[in-house]
Design goal:
The chain is of the alpha/beta class. The protein has 7 helices and 11 strands. α4 packs parallel to α6 (168-174).
Length: 237
């Protein structure tokens, strides 16, 4: 807690994001990144997340018992990936009795270049992007060209994220003045940067933390009235 009574950042924080193909684990001690692991998982995330968490804690010279708060990236991104970090940290939060906070994965990209008009784009597959930031009122998903048409005139946005790199040609064709940095590290959501979006004074209940999907799942699209059960009826369960 700060000297004026406001709740400040806990001394030791463990942050994890697995919403994209880049797994990010960070240990922040006294406001500084003490250890960080960025691992490209071409086949998706799995049990290795726990190994990287323990490895990062060891690199930082702390133990799980020292962690005072957890932060999870909530997506948007991979439906499965977004759940892995959240489920893993929910388990650790329950085991240690420490609070768990969540922030959209796009928040990490939006904070990669402070002071600039950043638009975070994460590949949503199907030739679409998840978009957040700049002049968008809320996270959005759709084709890159349609996204560019939604943006008002003004200073060209800086596009960061896997969606910016994969659909660079389509984005530039729709709006030639956009800026897409060549530095690949800027396009990876770093879990440590999620901390800038956290309200430490209001720890949420674990049950209220859910992934940010933006787009409906394939099952919801295929079965809008519910899932068929074995008896040929419909179930919304």
């Amino acid at each position: 807690m700060s000297n004026d009574g406001r709740v400040g950042m806990p001394r030791v924080v463990l942050a994890v994001d697995t919403s994209t193909l880049h797994e990010s684990v960070a240990v922040i001690v006294a406001g500084e990144v003490r250890a960080e692991r960025l691992v490209y998982q071409s086949r998706g995330h799995g049990p290795g997340v726990l190994d990287d968490i323990h490895g990062a804690l060891a690199d930082a010279g702390v133990t799980l018992a020292d962690v005072e708060a957890f932060v999870s990236g909530l997506g948007p991104g991979s439906f499965t990936g977004a759940r892995i970090a959240l489920a893993t940290l929910k388990g650790l939060a329950l085991a240690t009795g420490r609070p768990l906070f969540g922030a959209r994965t796009t928040e990490a990209l939006l904070r990669a270049l402070p002071g600039q008009r950043v638009l975070a784009l994460i590949d949503a597959r199907r030739h679409e992007v998840y978009a957040d930031g700049a002049d968008l009122a809320a996270p959005w998903v759709g084709p890159p060209a349609e996204l560019m048409a939604r943006l008002p005139d003004g200073a060209p946005p800086v596009l960061l994220g896997s969606g910016a790199r994969i659909y660079a040609d389509a984005l530039r064709a729709a709006r030639p003045d956009v800026i897409i940095p060549a530095d690949l590290s800027l396009h990876v959501p770093r879990a440590a940067l999620l901390l800038g979006a956290i309200d430490w004074a209001s720890p949420p209940a674990l049950a209220t933390l859910e992934p940010t999907y933006v787009r409906k799942s394939d099952a919801e699209i295929t079965y809008p009235d519910g899932f068929p059960d074995v008896m040929g009826g419909l179930s919304n369960a």
